[in-house]
Structure formats: C-alpha cells, structure tokens
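Quick start: what a row looks like.
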Amino acid sequence: LKNDNSALVYSLSQLLNLAVAHLWQVFQLENTVDFIGVSQRALLALEDATGVTDLGLKLDYKISHLLVDEFQDTSPTQISLLKALTRGWQNNDGRTLFCVGDPMQSIYRFRKADVGLFLQAAEQGVNDIQLTQLKLYQNNRSSPEVVSWINQSFQQLFPSVNSVKQGAIAYSPFVAKKPKDASAGVTIHPVLYANDEDENLLEAKRVIEIIRHTQSTQPHAKIAVLVRAKKHLAGLVREIRRAHTDLRFQALEIERLSDRQSVQDIVALTKAMLHLADRVNWLAILRAPWCGLTLADLHWLCADNHHATVWSLLFHTSNIAKMSPDGQARLAHFKTIMAVALDNKARQTHKRWIESVWLQLNGPACLWEASDMQDIQAYLALIEKLEKTQQFDINTLDDEVNSLFAAPDTLAPDTLQMMSIHKSKGLEFDTVILLGLDRKSANTDKPLLLWEEVEAPNTHQAAQLVAAPLTPTHQKIADVTDLYDYLHDLEKVRSEHEKMRLLYVAATRAERHLHIVGACKVKEKEGGLVLTKPASNTALGSLWPVAEHAFEFALSQYQAPQNIDSTANLSTFSPKLLRLKTLAEVIPLAKTTREQTSYWPDDNENEIENDNPPVQNAEIQTLAKDIGTLNHLYVELINQQGLASWPESRVNGLQAAMQQWFKQRGFNEPEISMATKKVASALITTLNSADGQWLLSQKANTELALQNADTKYVLDFTFIETLENNQKIRWIVDYKSASVASETTDLNAHAKQYKKQLDSYAALFEQEDLPIKKAIFYLSLGKLVTL
C-alpha cells in the first residue's frame, strides 16, 4: 500500500478495529458467538503465536483419518483449519485425508466459499499431502434424456478451462445409469408479454398449468419449484392463494411474516395500542375482521375531523349515531375491550398485553389456516425477545418482523415444494420447474475496501494480502484501470461463473422432467414484433444461447393474451371486506383452517358489486366430526391448564361459546343445542371420572404431529409414566367422542378395532427403547381401555 491511499487505509483499519471491539462486547453481553467466531476459536485452539498448542499435538496423535465432504465449498478459514489438523502429516505414513466434492456445484461464495481452493488442493495437495484424484462420471439420479440435455447445454455454457484465479470450472459430462424413458425430458416454456404488469401473472399461470398437468398424469410425483431468490416466488404464491386454493404446497422460509394478513392485523393492533395518534393503524384495526366496520361507517365516524385521534372519536355520540346499527354494535364491542386494555397499559409485558387484547377481540377466529396460529405465536415471541433484550420499539419491531418467515403449511403433502436453489442442493425431485429466470440480480453497493491473497510465483513465501480502497469518482484517471477496479472486475467474473453453476445445480435436481419457465418482453418495431433480449446479469441471459431458439419459435406463434384477470394487479384490485359475521363471547379454542374460517366477504359493503354467496367447503363437515374436534380442543386445554382450573361450573359456563362455535360451522339451532350438550356432558364425565383425572393430570404431548418416511400422523395424547421402581413407560392414548353404551358394548372388543392405528403410532417411538402402552379413552364414559 503506497502513497495517497495509505492514510485512508490506516483510517479504515482503525475503524475496523473499533467495530471488532464493539462486536466483541455485544457478543459478550449476549453470551453468544457467530460462525466466524467459532472458526477463529477452533484455529486458536490448534495453533497460536507460539506454534502448535497442546490440543493440536493431542489431536495430531489421535487423528488418523479425515474425511471432508462438500469440499468444493470450503472457505480460506476452513482450509486453514484443515491444514492445522494435518500439520506434519506425510504421504504413506498411515494417515489419510479423503476429500469429496463436485466443483461444478460450488455455489456458496456468499459464505466465502472459494472453488479455487478445491482446484489448488487437487493440483498441489494440502500441506505435504498429495491427493490422488478419483473422478466419477456416472449419474444415478436423472433419466438419460435429462442428462443428455444437461451435457449438451452446459458444455457450451461453462468455461472451457479451469482457473483458480477466476473461480472457473470446466464442464465434465456425465453418463446416465438409468434406462431410457420416452416420457422424460427437458422443456423450455417461453412466456411472452407486452405489458410489464402482466408478466408475473402470465408466468404464474404457466407454472400452475405445469403443476396441474403433472399432478393429473403422475399423482405421486414430487414437484419442486426452484428460484434463485425467494422473492421470485411472490407472484406464484399470490396467484395460488387467490385463485387456486386447493393447491397446497410446502415452502420453507418463502413467505415473509409481514406479508401474511393475520400478522399485518396484529401488527396494526400493536402500533395502535402503543400510539393513540397513529390514525392509519387505528382505522386498520377498526376495518380488521374482528371489528369489520364498513367504509361508510368509518366515514361517518372519522371523516369530519382529521385532527382528533380515532380513539377520542369513538366517544363522539353524534358521529356514532349516524352509523348503521350493525356498525354501532361492532364499535361498542370493540370499544369495551380496548377501554379495559388501555387502562391496563404498562401493568404487564407488551407481549401479554397485546396477546390478551387479540384474544379478547377473537383474533383466533379470524385466521385462515392452522399455520397462521404459528405465525401469530412467532410474532408474539419476537415481541417477548425484544423486551427481554430491551430493544422493543416500533422501528426495531418492523425490521425484525421483515426478517421472519411464515410457517409452512403443515397439512400440505410433500408432492409440491417451493424453495431456493441453494435449499434444494442435495435433494432430488421427479419434476423440477425453474422460475423467475429473467429477474435481475440485486444491485449491491461497491465495498469500501477489496482485498485478495496472492501467492508469489515460483517461491515458497506465504500468500501476501493485496488490498485496495474504493477510489472516488473525481479522483479516477480516464482509461486507467486501478487496483480496485481490477479486483472488482475479478469478483464479477467469479460471480458470473458461480451463477452458471447455480443453474447447473438446479437443473440436476430433476429425475425425469425439467421445465424451464422464462419470461421475455415483446415489442413492436418497424411493423413487426421483436423479443427484448434478457439482461446479461439474469439467469435467462446466461441460458440464452440454448434457449433463444425456443423463444424465437414462440414469437412466431405469438398472439396477445385475452381477458387477463386484472384482479391480480394491485392498480385495479379492490379488496372486499372480510369480517366475523357476529361478535359474541370469545371462543377460547378457535383453531381454524381456510375451510373452517368464520368470516367471508360481507355483502353489505357498498363497494362490493358482486353479491355472490360465500363459497362452501367442498368436504361436508359432519356434526359428529365437529363434536369430536371441539372435544379434542377442550381436552388439550384442560391438560395444559390443569384440572384445578376446570371445575364443572366452568364447563357449564362455556356452553354459550360452544354454541357460537357450532353456529359458525353452519349448523341449525336443534343441531347446535344437541351438539353442545354432548360436548359438555363428555367433558364433565371425563373430569369426574377416575380414569379421566389420572389421564389429564399427566404432563403430556397433545395433538402431537409426527411423520415417518411417507406418512404424517397426529397423536391425540402421549406421555411417559415413571413407575415407583423408576421404570419408564410410553403411553399412547387415542380419544373417542362417539357415544358408546358401556352396558351393552364390550369396550375391550370395541377398542381392538383401533389396534392397527395405535400400532402405527407406536412404531414412531421404537428408537426410545421403552415399553409402550396403547389405550383408547372414551370421553362420554370417562373410561380408559388398554390394548
């Protein structure tokens, strides 16, 4: 480092030291450590300034064989650790180093992985250990048709030669082991659009067509939709949520928590409760499903006064008198709950305060899916975490919520999955769909400082660090490439090479079918239509040499799509009012799914033009099934809260809530009355019976969801009993709500018909190596029958 830049580099170095010192204090305060800290401590444990440590000598004595998997994604720190572990090893001294990796699958540069280290180790070895290269060419995953296309395509897309400096890997063709399959292959799906606002919708519709066709022809085939960045799935997920609700999918860390309506509602509730003058969020919670005021009622309430808080306007009787009777009733219910809540502000933690108000407003009944409850719990846990670390404020809460992801659909089968390409590495699917290929990479700011380790040629000196600070634009010399520009351009070349490897990883996840969905804009030029070539920094731009012919053919057949559904466009979309049909006593056990939702578009909302009835659930929910569901929910709550909290009087007092629950499920009054009596009777019988009291006093897992290789199970009740001799027994208990006459029915014989089901549950606990007792508990009789 010379002359003009030395002072700047010194200043940057000082700032870096201060930042490191501050981070160290933060880690100490939080009693935690990051991955870099773990790596550094591992290195310091083996070697320090004086040389090899005692631990390093001990490990050198004990370790005879090392196996390193995924070697293509090692970082300089990991290589240093490997060298420290093998210091002093010699060829043929009885110790072995075995490194496994595929350099064409090196895709973790953002974690500081450097595929050049793989090439160096292959050529020069590690320390004094020379590595013998064993190359594998057989592909055991994909059909010959898929392998052939990948070989032909990526042979021309990959660099022609390896390069340590540029992180370039030449393509190595593979040979398919599987037999030929005439139905397998690779298909490029050009999606042509003329208007930018149509792109996401047209692309999503094409992907859904592929999914529908695959599921109809191969019902058990596993389908994966892969993208470079999670945000590229937003359009597809939005279209499925809007118009294809029967398509259930598994998606890990795809949908941001802040994008889910249920979370948006409770966030608005949080902000309104914390700030009475937050007019937008107060209007939002009055509009939310738990209150559901129409726009007309909101107008009468707030339109003539833009300066007073919404909370104060809730007490303006003249304005309230202008509202509809339904709106007045909803507002009174809401105001009663909020008044008590605001009086109790600062008397409890924010988490308990907000959660209690949300429950009193019947927030659980406003959820769409079972996983929504997990999202709400994740949000409340975040508030609790911020409070404990004294970081709770609105701005921090917004930032943290944006970093959380919605829980996956627990009821969705694994036959349709969505994930990033990085997440898919190591997995395989019958059908793979690549989406969002025309999206540009995120623009990143140039770093203030770039550096590179450089080894002097033909010498045994240690690698030298070459660093260059960012040169301000006004100090640049025209047509002169400085050191910073050279290092920056070198990073761009490495990034381009990795981008191609990322596409290779995505393509090789497919066993039988690979669908490449790419969108390209069509423009009129000189009386004809032309394609807008994809940008070079997109995946489609990288694939263009092998995909262009498919797009040119699609252009020759192109006709502008008609009747594109404009409701998917935010510029023209008008949301309908969703709200609880009735505001009644809070239902403490509301666990709803989309099919069970108790609210729908309100036909009285004046901006709704279509007066369509709510869509009914395709699967007929029988009364007996719902009686069992409610019994299960209450038994779970009793077990959690303890028998002492559930006297018979409490069950009787909840019958109004039970009636409301059945009413929301669409049953008539005679059915509701009969069902409520059955639930209350079964609970009271259980609470008063010896078997019921013993069972519910156990510390158990209720409604426990477990899964083996191919089947998902939900266990009603399971716990471990410790006997007087300290022997432990695993109990698995299934509830039965249906009425059984004990006088005329042999309960032992009746229970045996469920033995096969309980045996499958027991198989899930084989690894515990504990005795297992299986039993059926009859709620209406309060009797436990062991099998």
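That is the whole record. The longest strand covers residues 510-525. The radius of gyration is 32 Å.
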